Amino acid sequence: MTKLDSHSRMTETSWEMRLARGGAIFGVVGASIFFLLRSQVLGLAFGGVDAALISLALASGVGLIFRFTANRLAFVVSYGLLTLGCVAQMYLPEPRTITQLVLVTGLVFSAIYFRFMRTLPALAICFAGFLIAGELAYQHPQANKVLLPDGFSLRGLWLNAAVGFLLLNGLIAATLSYVVTVLETSRRRSEENERLLKLFTELSSDYVYQINLGVPGLMPEVFAGSFERTTGYTLDALRKKGGWLAVVHPDDRQRLEHVTPKLLAGETVVTEYRIISATGLVIWLRDRIRPVYDAKGEAVTKLMGAVTDITERKAAEEQVENLAFYDPLTALPNRRLLLDRLEQARALSTRTGQHGALLFIDLDHFKNLNDTKGHEAGDQLLIEHARRLTLCVREGDTVARLGGDEFIVILGELPAQAEKAAEEAADLCQRILQKLSEPVTLTFRTMTDYENTCSIGVAMFSGHIVSVDELLRRADMAMYQAKADGRNLFRFFDPQMQKLLGERLALESDLKQALAGRQFEIYLQPQLASDRRVTGAEVLLRWHHPERGLVYPGYFITAAEHTGAIHDIGVWVFEQACLLLTKWAGGAITRALTLAVNVSARQFRQADFVDRVRRLLQQTGANPKLIKLELTESLALDSVDETVAKMLALRELGLAIALDDFGTGQSSLAYLKRLPLNELKIDQSFVRDITTDQNDAVLVQTIIGMAQNLNLEVVAEGVETEQQLDFLVKHGCPAYQGFFFSEPVPVTEFERKFAA
Question: In this protein, which residues make up the domain named PAC (predicted)?
Fold first, then answer.
């Protein structure tokens, strides 16, 4: 029996409560009518016992009707019974069993509800009531008619009954109070343990369970914790699904099956797996499972487990892995994961004897897109090309982003025959070239269809013969060869490239020392008018290499651009030209000579190029009107708006702008009209065959006529014969340079021959 909450009121939420209230109303009304009729019909007067009984009935009924608290109603009943018993005893000449039973019942109620210490006043009242009742009984008119044993008086009988009642009922009340206290303490301890167990379960895991191995489907029997909140299933819903295995992710069921033998062998297993929740979400769980043996300790009959939801932890781990191993823009593997995949591909090749291939892919003219449309457009292109590359390769191959506009593709499990393996790699390269050359719709600011190509270098490998770094270098070299051959191509690595690479690296190392070692020298090739009068010269660079001797620009300019040394070299050449003009300013012949200085693409694209030119002009005092900057046609057409702005700034400084190698690129009259040019230089490839090739002759005539119509100066390069000169003079070309007049010579020799 448990103690009811003393602060809770009885409610009418159950049929028992409604029945109790109805019975109380019926009892109160019925008892009132009964005693009224009894007094009227029989003419019986109310005595003290009647009054006590009626009071108890009324008090109890009113308590039920008006929903007294449980303790208050218990007080009314228990102390009402005590009062009734005491009153009844006072009207009897001797102790009666019925009255003692009423008193005992009242004390039992009191002991149950109010414990022994609060029952002591009731015992004292009963004892006092017995004594008073005995005294009254001794004076009762019927006292002399009561037959008593010899030696006993009625007063002694009542005293004896009172002492016996006190001792016996005190023992009963104390025993009941003790039992109730023990039960209550045990209940509270059980509730507290259950609460602590629940808290501990929630702290250590989301829920715990027990499974009987004899039940199909691993249906859980016991749960503690938030099973329904974690999985979304109730036990009934899980039972209808077919048990626990039915909600485990299909890819992880085999994992649970593998741990079964360990559990049956008595091992405790910790495993992680996924389930499909009732809402369809994938939830990661960490399950610590412990086997439970039967009573004999011979066989495992049950499994107990504690489960924790680790979905958030798995998501965090996945995010960390993505940051560490994947490119945030394209979601492709980054360099770190690429190297790991490449090692795996080499190991697989060693085991199987099959070939593999490494494709180094670089987007052509990607910088132009960034410069003209912005980096957001460039990012869109990279994302789209990453998607297309992924679609081109086979399942199991790797596409990675090395950085910038460079991608790597690892092909594994190619045929063991080298030729067939190369054929499959070539087929994939063709698919990639075709796919990446298709227009890409860029939606940044305005929707634009942008066409882009790529260059691919291929390095084949078999096993661990070639290191990872060497493979990447070989593929990189092959890619640069594809670019050198015209772009939008793929090239396989050739061992000869390794030799060229070594020479290029040595050349780049020597270039770093060339300026500091004063190994460069400017040469001049004269430019003449139609009357063969020298009007100026083109400034050309020569390198006096300590071991190689005289080295021409065609051999080292590419390496200088690759290393960035071209910036310092270009500044030095322009400075030397300015200093030479300052020196010539005092000569009668040389003061009017002009100098044409070539500007490389990388040098011209520098943000501070115009400022550097301005500072050198100020520092040297050279006359800018005597300087022509020669730009290549391809450079002039890259980023046209930016190029035009810089050309205008240079012309404001007083310099002239010449378009070198005109006719070899893809320029149109529309672009030519926009460029603020002063001069066109006809490329020597057209001049060389003007006397033998009608097409070249027509082209040269067209260029001369177009330049005249656009009010541009014209210089023909590469004049080597008298016939070529006569043709150019005949068709109105005003200026020339070439070996027919002079090859490039040192400054001192130029001054001796043409400026003396």
Answer: 269-322
Q: Let me know whether 282 and 255 are in one domain.
A: yes
Q: CATH code at 519?
A: 3.20.20.450
Q: Is 239 helix (H, G, I), strand (E, B) or coil?
A: helix
As a whole number of angstroms, the distance between CA 624 and CA 386 comes to: 48
Residue 33: partners with Cβ closer than 8 Å, 6 or more residues away: none
Residue 570 falls inside a structural domain: yes
Predicted local confidence at residue 234, as pLDDT: 82
Burial-class residue 520 by CB neighbours within 10 Å (0-12, 13-18, 19+).
Answer: middle
Write out 708-747 in H/E/C secondary structure. HHCCCEEEECCCCCHHHHHHHHHCCCCEECCCCCCCCEEH
The count of domains in the chain is 4
Q: Which residues, at least 6 apart from 685, have a Cβ–Cβ distance to it below 8 Å?
A: 664, 718
Closest CA to 277 of 242, 220, 238: 238
Is position 178 within any domain? yes
Tens-place pLDDT, residues 171-223: 555 655 666 666 677 777 777 666 656 555 555 557 778 888 877 767 777 66
Domain span including residue 286: 205-316
Task: Give the 3-state secondary structure of residue 222.
Answer: strand
Total-model pTM? 0.45
Last residue of a domain, one of 182, 214, 239: 182
475-520 pLDDT, tens digit per residue, is 998 998 888 888 898 888 876 645 665 677 678 788 888 888 889 9
Between the alpha carbon of residue 257 and those of residues 245, 251, 268, 363, the distances in Å are 10, 11, 15, 49
DSSP 3-state percent helix, strand, coil across the chain (nearest 5) = 55, 20, 25
